[in-house]
Amino acid sequence: MRAPSRHRYSFVLASLAASRQRGFTLLEVMLVLLLMGLAAGYVIFNAFSTDPSEQLEREARRLQVVIDMASDYAVLNQQQLGIYIDQENRTYSFMQLSDEDEWQFIEGNTLYEPVTLTEPFFFTLNLDDLPWQTEDRLFDREMFDSSLSVNEQDIEIGEEEAPPPPPQILIMSSGEITPFSLVFHYEPEFTNDLPAYYVLNCQDLPPLELLGPLERPEWD
């Protein structure tokens, strides 16, 4: 049998090299672009979904994650932090206790910037008579009201600018957090959408618990 000539081997090698150098065909490029477009569309759909229940969940989950991170920060840096919940304006803000024992809003940190819920969402804060509270609970709210001046009755307003309101939720350097239940509401009035609720619970220590979607708040 006659062995292949050196010229034929050279032709095959040259063909393979040319195939590698020519890159993708137009069809392959179009296929890749199509897949990239579908993937981008999926991400955009999930990020900007028009489902109010999903949007409400993102609002609640964001606060859940940031509070967990703030708790770690407070422990590592031995700082007292807090959260002020402005229910009327649907806004929450993170605060810190200064060296002069004065509460100040945290500035210059995008993670702890004030957040306002988008309409038509709102929330309600519950600090009392929580279903899991017992007489031997870890967090003593009255003690912390006294030591950290979070009781609004102790605020004296003089000629100087009034200090910011104290936080209702404390994030302690010991790792403890004020027990609370924060309900995120979606209650449509002029659409056929069903109402939705998410409940963010804290029982003394992180991690926080997020429940939902619920058909109604737990205490109804």
Task: Describe the protein's architecture and organization.
The chain is an alpha+beta fold and 220 residues long. It has one domain: minor pseudopilin epsh domain (minor pseudopilin epsh fold), CATH 3.55.40.10. The protein has helices spanning 6-21, 26-47, 52-77, 141-147; strands spanning 81-86, 91-97, 103-105, 115-116, 122-126, 169-171, 180-186, 196-203, 205-214. The longest helix has 26 residues, at 52-77. The radius of gyration is 28 Å and the shape is globular. Mean pLDDT is 79; it is low at 42-47 and 149-155.
Short description:
The chain is an alpha+beta fold and 220 residues long. It has four helices and nine strands. 32% of the residues lie in helices and 23% in strands.
